[in-house]
Structures are given as C-alpha cells and as structure tokens.
Design goal:
alpha+beta; 11 helices; two-stranded antiparallel ribbon; binds adenosine-5'-[phenylalaninyl-phosphate]; about 350 residues
Length: about 350
C-alpha cells in the first residue's frame, strides 16, 4: 500500500510538472486529492490493517497528499506569473511611435458667413424662420404683389415644377408665410436664411442656385431710417469701416420705395475690374419698405402697421469678405479652397 502511495505521488508530480494550463492543473487537483481520487481508494484498505501499520500508513498518505498539494500550489504560482507576463507583453505600448494625425474640418466659408450674419441679427433681436424650397407660385409671386403675367416676374427666371409650384426664386415667400401666420398682429422681427434657385447663367458672380438671407421687420412706426441704420450696421460689422456702401433707388413689386445696396469691390477697391464688371461696386442685397398691398393681402392693416424687408445674397457677402473672385468656388467641394478659411 505504501508503495502504491509513493507511485501515485510520482505520477502526480510528473503530470503536474508537465501541465502548462491553470484549468488542467485544477483538474489534476480534483483527480489526485478529490474524494473519489486514487489516494482515497488506497486509504479505504487501511481499515483491515493492524493499528500500528494503520497509523504509519495514515501519516504517509497525509505526507503524500500535502506533497502533491504543495506541488500544485507551486505550479499555480508559476502559471499565474507566466499569464501576467504574457498579458504584459501583449499590451506593451511603443511610446516612440508617431501619433495618428487627427483630421479637423473647417466651416465652409458660406456657412461661416451665414453663421456670422445670423449671430449679428440675433443680437439685434431677430428670430430665425425657415420656409420650403419647393414653393407655391402663390407665395413666391402672387402674395408678393406679382400677379400672373406681371412683367416683373421676368426679373427672376424660374424653375417651374408644375404650373403652380416652383423652386423658390428668393427667400421673400417666407416673409409672406410669417405675415400670414401672425394674423394681422405685429410686431415681427425675423430673418430667414436658405437656398434659392434661378435660371441664371453661371458666371463669376451668378449661380443658378445660391443662398439668400431674408429680413422682415414690421411694427407700428418702422421707417426707412430704421432700414438704413440696420443695413449700415450690417455693412460695418461684416466688412469693416474702410468699405463703402451705397443705396441705389431700385424696384421690387413687394417694396415701395425700394433700394439696392452695393459695396465697393474687394478686388479693385472701386477702380473697376472683371469681378465688378468695371463698375467698382458689387451688389449685395435688395431692400425696401414693405408694399401696402403685401401687408393687406397677408391680413395686416397697412394704416396700423408698416415695416421694411431685405434680401441678402450670402455668396456675395462671403466673396467680398474673403476676396473670393469666383462664386463657383463655393460649390466645387475642393478641400484646398475650403481649408484656406481655417
Ligand atoms: C430679391 O431676390 C428680393 N427678394 C430681395 C428683396 C427682399 C428685396 C425683400 C426687397 C425686400 P434680387 O433679385 O436683387 O432681390 O436678389 C437679392 C440678392 O441676391 C442680390 O442682391 C444678389 O446679392 C443675390 N443674387 C441675385 N441673383 C444671384 C445669382 N444668380 N447668384 C448669386 N447671387 C445672386
């Protein structure tokens, strides 16, 4: 029996020293030291032995079990240390490697100018409104004092979708929608930025799709002086003190009187070049006092309320501000162009 115990110890030690896996090691613990293990089996035969022999056999079996157990513990420490070393090796960081470059985008210059204009008007107490790009003829023209067949419709060559709907040619229909929603009750102070579409031939300063920012202010005592003050504030904030602006009498069926506002050309500063077509000026917006017919058609009493409206060409503002010579640069998605405005 004692020989058998020594044999089992040798077997266990051989198996333990060969294993390289913590789970297998645990299986070996169960196999040799568990209640159904071979050592326990051998011990069962002790009951037939004489008292002295039983005592000695018990002592030896305990020694064998504790030797196996010590062996398992030592192996466990060794395997755990190996596992940690392997994990550390896998997680090693090479701090000398160059970092990954982060690509940081920039605002498109047109978006930057739109944001700047929005902020300017918000500080002046305006709120922002939006309207649909596919618009009814009714809002785009008729309620703006441009009935069907009116010759001034030719000022804005249009992309019609059906007889009654089109891609809006300006942001002015939003004025009418806001007036209608107010149900004859002022005051109103809004801007509306958005895309507009015209069948214009593309050149350095014209595009078939461009952006406008509409403004509308309605109150009991709004005058042309308020409009002029607002436009001067706009020009001063966007272009600085050294730029000149001029207001030219103009015509829009939805404003009376009407003006067009020009700013000195960014390239030639007024002497005349290809950008400004030799005039020294670039037109940036149209404006005027809201026509009484427009107020009336949208449910406002023109005797109680009056106001002004304007429509800014956002590209023209961005071109002047950044000295961009061709409007088509805004739409080509050339990152080299966009990244100049970091
Ligand atoms: C209008 O669109 C009027 N709705 C503006 C207005 C609003 C007047 C409220 C009175 C009251 P106009 O067609 O002039 O007006 O266009 C306004 C601005 O849009 C122009 O001053 C110009 O800066 C810009 N613009 C016009 N056509 C183009 C184009 N094809 N490409 C780029 N910008 C353009």
């Amino acid at each position: 029996m004692l020989d058998r115990l020594k044999e089992l110890q040798a077997e266990a030690v051989a198996e333990i020293s060969k294993t390289m896996d913590l789970k297998q090691l645990n299986d070996l613990r169960v196999k040799y030291l568990g209640k159904k293990g071979p050592i326990q089996e051998v011990m069962k035969n002790m009951k037939d032995m004489a008292r002295e022999g039983r005592k000695a056999a018990g002592q030896i079996s305990n020694e064998v079990k504790s030797a196996i157990s010590d062996q398992i513990e030592a192996k466990k420490v060794e395997l755990e240390a190996l596992a940690i070393a392997e994990q550390l090796a896998n997680e090693t960081l090479d701090v000398t490697l160059p970092g990954r470059q982060q690509f940081i985008g920039v605002s498109h210059p047109l978006q930057a100018v739109t944001n700047e204009l929005e902020e300017l008007f918000i500080t002046m107490g305006y709120t922002i409104e939006e309207g649909p790009e596919v618009e009814w003829d009714h809002y785009n023209f008729e309620l703006l004092n441009l009935p069907k067949g009116h010759p001034a419709r030719d000022m804005q060559d249009s992309f019609y979708i059906t007889e009654e709907s089109l891609l809006r040619t300006h942001t002015s229909p939003v004025q009418v929608r806001v007036l209608e929603a107010a149900k004859g009750q002022g005051p109103i102070k809004i801007i509306c930025p958005g895309k507009v579409y015209r069948r214009d031939d593309d050149d350095a300063t014209h595009s078939h799709q461009f952006s406008q920012i509409e403004g509308l202010v309605i109150g009991a005592d709004i005058t042309m002086a308020d409009l002029k003050g607002t436009l001067l504030e706009l020009a001063r904030k966007m272009f600085g003190e050294d730029r000149e602006i001029r207001l030219r009498p103009s015509f829009f069926p939805f404003t009376e009187p009407s003006v067009e506002v020009d700013v000195t050309c960014s390239k030639c500063s007024g002497s005349g070049c290809n950008i400004c077509k030799g005039t020294g000026w670039i037109e940036i917006l149209g404006a005027g006092m809201v026509h009484p017919n427009v107020l009336e058609m949208s449910g406002f009493d023109p005797k109680a309320y009056q106001g002004f409206a304007f429509g800014i060409g956002a590209e023209r503002i961005a071109m002047l501000k950044y000295g961009i010579e061709d409007i088509r640069n805004f739409y080509t998605n050339d990152l080299r162009f966009i990244h100049q405005f970091k």
